[in-house]
Specification:
By secondary structure, the protein is mostly helical. The protein has one domain. It has 8 helices and no strands.
């Protein structure tokens, strides 16, 4: 089926996913360290926070063995991200928004890689957008729930899931509809996702609760 899809016959290199896995493990390690977890808790939260979205992508939507179970490189990426996160935690706490910046990087890469895998698997473009969004925010959602924090995905605030959605939709548009080279479309979409997220942090571009929009006290 995929040979008839313009621009999506090539799967992005696994290095995209591995880089996002490392960054997500790093962010999850900081979150776990902030909660006072021991090393077992840190590794568990890092594992779920980094590959949780990819497992949902593969098992629920693409219906194949999760890629994290097929390549040990993911476990090595997590294994590297945790000690780096532990060593840098005290410094990360000194820099405002550093957690958000790292999270923004993984958000952009995860979303585009997930959408690309969905298109290769033969899902329609609308479905690929959903899969990419789940891939982008799924791990962070699980991380927040396990850390007993209200998921950022559910709260009114600076653009998060909308930034991921915009980047994923742009990638699908460029690669599937316009036939742009997969690599070029991916880098453009990743840049847009990260830029939107960082601009939202810098200028406090925020969503509002439905209740406040209705004027309900």
């Amino acid at each position: 089926m995929t040979e008839n899809l313009p621009g999506v016959s090539f799967l992005l290199p696994i290095q995209f996913d591995l880089a996002a896995t490392f960054l997500a493990a790093l962010a999850a390690t900081w979150a776990a360290s902030r909660r006072g977890y021991d090393v077992v808790g840190v590794y568990m939260l890092a594992f779920v926070g980094s590959v949780g979205g990819g497992v949902l992508r593969d098992v629920v939507f693409i219906r194949e063995i999760p890629i994290v179970m097929q390549s040990a490189r993911y476990l090595w990426a997590i294994g590297l991200g945790v000690p780096v996160g532990i060593v840098t935690f005290r410094y990360a706490e000194r820099f405002v928004h550093l957690f958000d910046y790292i999270d923004a990087l993984s958000l952009g890469v995860y979303g585009i890689y997930g959408a690309n895998r969905a298109l290769i698997a033969g899902l329609p473009p609308e479905g690929a957008v959903i899969v990419g969004l789940v891939n982008a925010v799924g791990g962070g959602l699980m991380r927040d729930i396990l850390a007993r924090e209200e998921p950022i995905l559910f709260k009114p605030g600076q653009l998060y899931s909308l930034a991921a959605l915009a980047g994923v939709a742009l990638f699908v548009l460029l690669s599937h509809r316009l036939g742009m080279d997969t690599h070029r479309a991916a880098w453009i979409a990743i840049f847009v996702t990260i830029a939107l997220r960082l601009l939202a942090i810098r200028f406090n571009w925020s969503t509002r609760s439905v209740k406040s929009r209705l004027g309900v006290p």
